[in-house]
Amino acid sequence: MLFLKELTHTILLHPTFFGRNLRSALKQRLYQEVEGTCSGLFGYIIAVIEIVDTGKGVLQTATGHAEFNVRYKAIVFKPFKGQVVEGLVTTVNRMGFFADVGPLQVFVSAHLIPEYLRFDPNANPPAYAGENQDMQLLTIEKGVALKIRILGTRVDATEIFAIGTIKEDYLGP
Amino acid sequence: MDPTNCSHEIQFRGMCAMCFKNLEIPSFEGSHTEKATINMSHNALGLLVSESKAKEIERETAQRLRKQKKLSLILDLDQTVIHATVDGNVGEWLQDVNHPDHHALKNIFHFTLAGDRDKNIYYIKVRPGTFEFLEKAHKLFEMHIYTMGTRPYAEAIAKILDPTGALFNERILSRDDSGSFQEKSVKRIFPGEGETMAVVLDDRGDVWSWSRNLIRVNPFNFFIGTGDINEPLGKSGRKVAPPPNTQESTPAVVAPTADVALPTQSSPTLNTESQTSPKPVETNASSSDTRTENTPEPQITPELAPNPAPSTPQPPVHPNPRATTTRPTQDNDRELEPIWTRLQTIHSRYYNDSFDANLQKHVVEWDSDVRKIMDSMRETVLEGCCLVLSGVVPIGVDIAKHDAYKLAVLFGAEVATDVDEWTTHVVAAKTGTDKVHKGMRRKGVHIVTPDWLYHSVNNWTRLSETVYSLMDQSSRNRTNTNSSVNTDIASLDDDEDGAIFTATLNMGDWADMDAEVDDALAEDSDEEDDLLPNGDEGISKDVQEVEKVEEEEDEFDFDDDLLSREIDELVGAHSDSDEEKTNASKRKRSVSPDVEVKK
Prior knowledge:
Organism (chain B): Chytriomyces confervae
Strand content of chain B: 5-15%
Shape of chain A: elongated
Protein name (chain B): RNA polymerase II subunit A C-terminal domain phosphatase
Structural class of chain B: alpha/beta
CATH topology of the domain at 69-216 in chain B: Rossmann fold
Largest sheet of chain A: 5 strands, antiparallel
Strand order of the largest sheet of chain B: 10-9-5-11-12
EC number (chain B): 3.1.3.16
Distance between the termini of chain A: 21 Å
CATH class of the domain at 69-216 in chain B: Alpha Beta
Largest sheet of chain B: 5 strands, parallel
Number of strands of chain A: 13
CATH architecture of the domain at 69-216 in chain B: 3-Layer(aba) Sandwich
Helix content of chain A: under 10%
Oligomer: heterodimer
Protein name (chain A): S1 motif domain-containing protein
Structural class of chain A: mainly beta
Function (chain B): This promotes the activity of RNA polymerase II.
CATH architecture of the largest domain in chain A: Beta Barrel
Radius of gyration of chain B: 27 Å
Number of helices of chain A: 1
Number of helices of chain B: 23
Radius of gyration of chain A: 22 Å
Number of domains of chain A: 2
Strand content of chain A: over 45%
């Protein structure tokens, strides 16, 4: 799920940036250091919306760097159990397939793919294919977009992985 | 699924893919993550399966392959089917239409890897015959790529070799995925049953620990001096892999004798073909850096260029040998043809008649094993040979761990520690060792260079011992050092990159060759020796390399016997003084007194 969240980040700024452009330098550094990272607590930081407060820089006596405690608002993405997400298939093998949901990697095991979709090792690229009840031919191969329900997540300090299913109504391609 | 009943057979990054439980949290029953340890997929996405699940998947694959009558083929890229370089000179050279070697430049592709900060342009030369080979192999084999290159590199190459993806179809394993920079293992792709259906093609045997599934290919060296751009860490190919440039030693013996040098239209035995097509590419490796600066003389047209390909009907043209010294590369590699016949044999022996019978009876089980088939093919190569290695294994190294020993045993030979009545060959790196002397005293014992072993193993044929005779080699090396004897010969040696090796030989020629060498030995005259193109530099270097080790070993051999040690030093002194004179007949005389002393 996506959230707008107020977060803080500490930036150490080199004395060469002390001057008129200090604020833009701070902004640059914040974008560089924060966007695209993942914290276990809040999930992936997708984009910084605004800087709330940079605070007053405190000079470090030993290095001359200034330390800024920046408060900013950002869009964060955190997957939850039971959430339905849309993803793009990246890899298909006989154990299942992987899909990218933005920065998140989701694995869908072959057990959690409907029975009518069978793995075809001779297909190029490898694919799960079959007809559903409505005699509609469906294929899951690299590049296909589909809906996945997240069943489990594992949250590391810097990474999140998820396991999903498409074996439910209205899920899948 | 209920986590308490789940066996957690498929795990993704510490999570069970079936019950979604986080398995990294410790429990009463011990670690769950240990239940699934095998990475089955070609890429490194963190998907692990348990042993039983892996076997189940393997079984499915094996049955599917058997239904299609296919086997698995694991293919290395660098120096096996392609040769890559990042040398910018190649770019200029590609654009120069007037370049005499322009005809050799077909099948060179180039690409830049995304995310490469240096923007290196990779030039890829595809080994001649690769596309045909892949096309043919596709019908009998399901092919995998297994390379020490990075994933983007491997994918870029796969795109060249197989633009539609029909051949490899994402079955690409790179060093990013394999988890090892030093070793390759069949088990990485086939943890279970699939191993019995997998054939490996690689130019390096050591990275596979000389696996029984391996067919070693002679390395493809097109861009001289480049080597393998993805060489495994901490392993020097030179040390373990037999030096490829010693290939020329065989044709070198016969090339100047004009009548055998006539190329023959067809070669009945493909194995000899690979042996007889000399690889001039490697001989001028020393000129690697300067190759594009020295523009070859423009009057050399490609038609005049020596083409040792077996299919050339024209008689050998002998242009001024000097004119060919700056030739950057040659496009005459035919290595894949004998490999293909070998693969066909393996395939037909796996899917033999009894397989069809079984299939009709709907017997699913099939216990045939390509490794057994390959073993039996290999074992006939040196069958009945009892080898004694001398000066090959460095002192302090366990003989059973040395490549020479492993290869000899793999190819059906027996290896003994000392010369006895069963000995058939003494494989010696230099003359003058105790074992060589003992071998010389016994009748019917061949004394050969290590190259005999390595080349026989490469070609899966027992090559003629006469050609690799150590006595012959060393006498040729000796005359070679004495350049004042014949300056023409010396200059020929420098230029031996193809002009004088236009010979292509088949089996019949080998007999001629043997006869001729025998004659030469019988006459035992200097002139005769000089006529032979001596000087395979690779060999002489090799001999020098082992010589240091050899000296140590000699000491070791006679450590318990002071007398014979003294004798050995005497021999050393003799041969030292001989080298100044470099006379084959004198050398023989110098050997014979020692033998008498020993008696």
